[in-house]
Design goal:
OB fold (Dihydrolipoamide Acetyltransferase, E2P), Rossmann fold, eight-stranded mixed β-sheet, seven-stranded mixed β-sheet, 27% helix, 30% strand, globular, binds S-adenosyl-L-homocysteine, SAM-dependent_MTases_sf, 23S rRNA (Uracil(1939)-C(5))-methyltransferase RlmD, iron
Length: 480
């Protein structure tokens, strides 16, 4: 900051402020810039005289023209106006509503380029935040991202908000970017075909029955969301109508029409949510017809999935991810394993078949109920589950003499709690397998574990969410 700026008269407007800050660009200016990277949100990163501009829609390797929208001291935002030199990896996004929707961020990039970037994003974080050395000869091996052979139609769950068209008919689709206006949609390319088809049927049934969609602003109207889940392996289908109120007029007609139009449906549920919130589900779920749950498999393990259960949304890649986790765990059948942040126990049960004993811990009580039920469903008796914060429960286990050979952690985006890492360093398992959905917190936590005597051996990025910016990976650490 210049001295003159502090002492001189107060600048009157933004333009003067920018000039005084000596920024190389100003608002509304047109600039031409090379794109040198992509942020974790999928925006192109450009530099003008060392000043960083984020440019949505621009891809690494491109030269673009852009109009500056907003300038801050350290960085600014600009709008892409023209591709001067397009990337050879740029493609026409296959989805018609890609720009309006915002659910995917990378559809304008070839799938190969997406996978390369996801690996590079992990490498950059390990080096910059983790101060780790990545390399072929020496250092950590970061493998190529394991992608999907067919990276479309991978989601097993659709949660579609309902609204009314201008003409007053029931529509359902997605919220327009940065708004709560609902845009009607008939097909989402990353959704399992059947989910799209069922949503189309349910919308038509709703229109026939004259149902009004819930209106967020007034709090009136009945149908809030339609949620559809499909078991990829079993083909079983569940339809959930989320309603603003417990009464569903003409419920028999609903059930009859859904059963007639959705072959394979095993469960039709109603979830009641009367709260003024954008949380999808309320606390009460009623089964209108059929079972309370559908079943699906990950590997050989069978899972019961209820309307509200957390279950991985890309079952094909989940098997790839857990397969790597199992490989890195290096189990021979005699090990004690802890699965921290275990959710409904998917990894725990996946590993239990290959270990002596597995302990899972998770903070959401309903998830642990599901984990126990799923253990029973599979006749797995060597897995036990605890409700609580992993950073509280792990020290208790330590005190009780639980001595794990392998610990798997799969934390939320904010990464592992410091106390959990400390406990790990006291427990001294032979191997730690870190499943991560955020390379930045992964890198931060790996630094702590390295400093505590562990060596990061290899990292395997796995593409769980093609065409989005999500980067998932599995890391193997070994005690020195
Ligand atoms: N391993 C599971 C779920 C991972 S998602 C799977 O593969 O399906 C991360 C989980 O951590 C979520 O279920 C979340 O509820 C849980 N969680 C968040 N903070 C936690 C904490 N402090 N202690 C234990 N679990 C926590």
């Amino acid at each position: 900051m210049s001295r003159g700026r502090n002492r001189g008269p107060k600048p009157h407007n933004k333009g003067q402020q920018e000039a005084l800050l000596n920024l190389p660009v100003s608002k509304n200016e047109d600039v031409e810039v090379d794109i040198i990277g992509l942020t974790h949100e999928g925006e192109g990163v450009g530099r003008v005289d060392g000043y960083t501009l984020f440019i949505g829609g621009a891809l690494p390797g491109e030269r673009v023209r852009a109009k500056v929208l907003k300038v801050k001291k350290q960085y600014g935002y600009a709008k892409l106006t023209e591709l001067v030199t397009a990337s050879s990896d740029r493609i026409a996004p296959p989805c018609e509503i890609y720009k309006q929707c915002g659910g995917c961020q990378l559809q304008h990039w070839s799938y190969e380029a997406q996978l390369d970037w996801k690996r590079q994003h992990v490498v950059d974080n390990l080096e910059r935040i983790g101060k780790l050395q990545v390399g072929e000869a020496e250092g950590i091996t970061v493998h190529s991202t394991l992608g999907m052979t067919d990276p479309w139609g991978y989601r097993n769950k659709a949660q579609v908000p309902m609204g009314m068209s201008e003409e007053g008919g029931l529509i359902g689709g997605f919220y327009a970017r940065n708004s709560h206006r609902i845009i009607d949609m008939d097909a989402c390319l990353i959704q399992h075909d059947q989910n799209d088809e069922i949503v189309r049927h349910v919308k038509a049934i709703g229109r026939d029955l004259g149902v009004a969609a819930y209106n967020e602003e007034t709090g009136e109207g009945l149908l809030r969301h339609v949620v559809v889940r499909v078991g990829f392996r079993t083909g079983e289908l569940m339809v959930v109508l989320v309603t603003n109120g417990s009464k569903l007029p003409r419920v028999d007609a609903w059930v009859e029409a859904i059963r007639a139009q959705v072959p394979g449906v095993e469960s039709i549920c109603q979830n009641i949510n009367t709260k003024r919130t954008n949380v999808i589900f309320g606390d009460v779920t009623k089964t209108l017809w059929g079972r309370d749950v559908i079943y699906d498999y990950i590997g050989d393990v069978k899972f019961a999935i209820s309307a509200r259960s957390f279950y991985q949304v890309n079952p094909v890649q989940t098997e790839v991810l857990y397969g790597k986790t199992l490989e890195y765990a290096g189990l021979t059948g005699s090990e004690t394993v802890i699965d921290a942040y275990c959710g409904i126990g998917t990894i725990s049960l996946f590993l239990a078949q290959h270990a002596q004993r597995v302990y899972g811990v998770e903070i959401v009580p309903e998830a642990i109920e599901d984990a126990r039920a799923n253990a029973a469903l599979n006749g797995i008796v060597n897995a036990e589950f605890a409700v609580g914060a992993a950073e509280d429960v792990m020290p208790q286990w330590l005190e009780q003499g639980v001595s794990p050979d392998v610990v798997v952690v799969d934390p939320p985006r904010k990464g592992c709690d410091e106390r959990l890492l400390e406990t790990l360093l006291t427990m001294q398992p032979e191997r730690i397998v870190y499943v991560s959905c955020n390379p930045a917190t992964l890198a931060r936590d790996l630094r702590v574990l390295e400093d505590g005597g562990y060596r990061v051996k290899e990292v395997q990025p796995v593409d769980m969410f093609p065409h989005t910016v999500h980067v998932e990976s599995v890391t193997l650490l070994q005690r020195q």
